[in-house]
Amino acid sequence: MGEEVKLFRSWSSPFALRIVWALKIKGIEYETVFEDLSNKSPLLLQYNPVHKKVPILVHNGRPIAESFVILEYIDETWKQVPLLPEDPYERAKARFWAKFGDDKVLTSVWNVFIKQGKEQEEALVAAMENLKFLEEEIKGKKFFGGERIGYVDLVLGLLANLISICEEIIGLKIVDEEKLPLLYSWMQDFAEAPIIRDNWPPRDKMIVKFQALLDAAIASSSSSSSSK
Fold first, then answer.
1. Cα(73)–Cα(5) distance, rounded to whole angstroms?
2. Is 186:144 a contact under the CB 8 Å cutoff?
3. Deepest in the core among 18, 44, 85, 125, taking most CB within 10 A?
4. For 162-198, what is each residue's pLDDT tens digit?
5. For residues 96-134, b (16+ Cβ closer than 10 Å) or e, as one string?
6. Is the pTM of this model over 0.90?
7. Minimal CA–CA distance to 82: which of 136, 142, 151?
8. For residues 169 and 172, what is the distance between their CA atoms, to the nearest angstrom?
9. 45, 21 contact by CB (below 8 A)
């Protein structure tokens, strides 16, 4: 009897991409259910009533939500091509850097994207501090997982796409090849890995989407300033 694996995602969700990549790396066949997040389906609300977000992995009728949780579920359920290291200490380190990536790096890079003027300059300083930690961590390795893509790479992987999109829109370099050569090389290597490259969302559509997000953030900031 075959397994039923479904992935609920949106076309642009960077967090759902983590799951796409993991399933592809593991060689797991699955069905994609694309969600319109402005008009969420009853199934999405049923499967994730707490956060009402994608991604959601449904395995034989049982839903799992939140990308970190799903990644670990995938790795524990399908043992081939492990994503996390076998050694407990190395596993703990991988979880640390994944959380650091989500909590600190992504947030600081996003602030560079949506801030302007002096606030953007300050945000860039904060982002560089966080990115330098990643630069140090990947020293001597091709990927954070070693010689092949692993758990931390999948978590941080959206940076390889979103940073260049943000840079193009705001006309500001965030990851400079001279200042962060190892991280820059990692972004290129990760983005060009066939399983990754073949599953990026269309870049032109992403630029339109992120330009709209930036415009909304600027409008919101201007509205807040004028109301003070």
1. 12
2. yes
3. 18
4. 999 999 999 999 999 999 999 999 999 999 999 999 9
5. ebbebbbebbbebbbbbbbbeeeebeebbeebbebbeeb
6. yes
7. 151
8. 8
9. no
